[in-house]
Automatic annotation (TrEMBL):
<keyword id="KW-1133">Transmembrane helix</keyword>
<dbReference type="InterPro" id="IPR036513">
    <property type="entry name" value="STAS_dom_sf"/>
</dbReference>
<dbReference type="Pfam" id="PF00916">
    <property type="entry name" value="Sulfate_transp"/>
</dbReference>
<dbReference type="InterPro" id="IPR001902">
    <property type="entry name" value="SLC26A/SulP_fam"/>
</dbReference>
<dbReference type="GO" id="GO:0055085">
    <property type="term" value="P:transmembrane transport"/>
</dbReference>
<dbReference type="InterPro" id="IPR002645">
    <property type="entry name" value="STAS_dom"/>
</dbReference>
<feature type="region of interest" description="Disordered">
    <location>
        <begin position="376"/>
        <end position="397"/>
    </location>
</feature>
<dbReference type="Pfam" id="PF01740">
    <property type="entry name" value="STAS"/>
</dbReference>
<keyword id="KW-0472">Membrane</keyword>
<feature type="transmembrane region" description="Helical">
    <location>
        <begin position="65"/>
        <end position="83"/>
    </location>
</feature>
<feature type="transmembrane region" description="Helical">
    <location>
        <begin position="42"/>
        <end position="60"/>
    </location>
</feature>
<keyword id="KW-0812">Transmembrane</keyword>
<protein>
    <submittedName>
        <fullName>STAS domain protein</fullName>
    </submittedName>
</protein>
<feature type="domain" description="STAS">
    <location>
        <begin position="152"/>
        <end position="343"/>
    </location>
</feature>
<dbReference type="GO" id="GO:0016020">
    <property type="term" value="C:membrane"/>
</dbReference>
<feature type="transmembrane region" description="Helical">
    <location>
        <begin position="99"/>
        <end position="128"/>
    </location>
</feature>
<dbReference type="InterPro" id="IPR011547">
    <property type="entry name" value="SLC26A/SulP_dom"/>
</dbReference>
Length: 397
């Protein structure tokens, strides 16, 4: 009936007609009486006319409190809905909050403004829930093909070299930044910050070479050049090439030694080799979300981390490929287990992985350093800006 009144007033307002009004209590009485269609209104109107013209004088002496009691009894079914609050609280905090907010606004303001406020609050909760969805780190349950949350399942074990992350929400403009930061947190490394520190190391190395009268340091590889580029390139091109003439002054050896210690500490933070993103919960990706996903894949590829996508729908795959937000270098798998088996076959030893990332750097610095320090003792030296996550130490050489 309320929908009928709304539709009637919307159409009749275009023809200068008189608006019709709805009564919540009268509608509740009609429903309680067993009314099913709008024909019930015809009979209730006829009964109302009899009351006004013929039966009205009989109710003249009835107190208003008795008439109010009749209305309250008719609305009893609506008040019983308040008992659902306990169930709503257990089911969803957002549904519970929407019920309370709408009820309070209806009582304090008016039925119309209360309902409008409830609708607005409900839309706001949808935005908030999709903006910060849950993200989980998954682990393989023993030797099965099932992957569960490592925080809730003791049988699920995660690896330091292969991380499986599930983002339980869609990626759009409101959640893109949260998606990026959440993946960085769950994977245990922030490639953007690591490359920022790498730029600082390069700048210090250039200044040191100039101070010693040597030729200015030049970086030809793809790792540093790709810092300023968002185009993902092949990982095989990510190598350092730093020709440095050994400085003769004794103070320079200490500077190079300190620089090498920082490089070793940086390598200890790069133990991750593969990152698997479970895309089964992604319903849609807008332009901002696609840009964020592309940038995230590019950042990890610069550090030698292969990002694999699994469980993505065909619609999203075709959308991203058609708009060149994904390249053929990003592997796609139908399930997490398929991606895990492929990543396990491509794993290399931890020392070999770190040696591949810095072998050119260590080779060029070996002429001015007596020995390369053990990275296990130098992990804490890379804390200029802020402390990073606690990673297991690796071997530099």
């Amino acid at each position: 009936e309320l929908f009928a009144f709304g539709l009637t007033n919307s159409i009749s307002s275009c023809f200068h007609a008189f608006p019709s009004a709805a009564s919540l209590s009268r509608s509740a009485v009609q429903v309680a009486a067993g009314g099913k269609t709008e024909v019930t209104t015809v009979f209730s109107s006829i009964l109302l006319l009899f009351v006004l013209f013929f039966i009205g004088p009989l109710f003249y002496s009835v107190p208003n409190c008795c008439l109010s009691a009749i209305i309250v009894v008719a609305l009893k079914g609506m008040f019983i809905h308040a008992l659902e609050l306990k169930t709503l609280w257990k089911y969803s905090f957002w549904d519970f909050g929407t019920w309370i907010f709408t009820c309070v606004c209806t009582v304090l303001l008016d039925v119309t403004f209360g309902l409008l406020a409830g609708v607005a609050f409900s839309i706001l909760t949808i935005i908030l829930r999709t903006q910060c969805p849950k993200i989980r780190t998954l682990g393989r349950a023993d030797d099965t093909e099932f992957y569960r949350d490592v925080r809730r399942n003791d049988l699920a074990k995660e690896s330091d070299t292969i991380k499986v992350v599930r983002y339980e929400g869609s990626i759009y403009y409101a959640s893109a930044e949260n998606f990026r930061q959440s993946v960085f947190q769950k994977s245990g490394m922030d490639p953007a910050k690591i490359f920022a520190k790498l730029q600082k190391v390069r700048a210090k190395l250039d200044r040191l070479a100039k101070h010693d009268g040597a030729e200015q340091t030049k970086l030809s590889p793809a790792v540093i050049d790709r810092i300023a580029s968002t185009e993902p390139r092949k990982l095989e091109e990510d190598k350092f090439s730093i020709p440095i003439e050994p400085p003769s002054p004794e103070p320079s050896q200490g500077s190079y030694q300190k620089l090498s210690n920082k490089l070793c500490a940086l390598q200890n933070r790069c133990t991750l080799q593969h990152l698997i993103l479970d895309c089964s919960c992604w319903n849609f990706i807008d332009f901002v979300g696609a840009e964020e996903l592309q940038q995230l894949v590019s950042d990890y590829q610069k550090l030698g981390v292969t990002v694999s996508l699994c469980g993505m729908s065909d619609t999203l795959i075709s959308l991203l490929l058609r708009n060149e937000k994904l390249t053929v270098e990003v592997p796609l798998y139908p399930s997490i287990h398929d991606a895990m088996l492929k990543c396990q076959s491509q794993l290399v030893d931890k020392s070999e992985h770190q040696r591949n990332l810095q072998k050119d750097f260590v080779r060029n610095l070996s002429n001015v350093m007596v020995s390369t320090p053990d990275c296990d003792a130098q992990t804490d030296s890379l804390n200029e800006d802020e402390p990073g996550p606690n990673f297991q130490s690796g071997i530099c050489r």
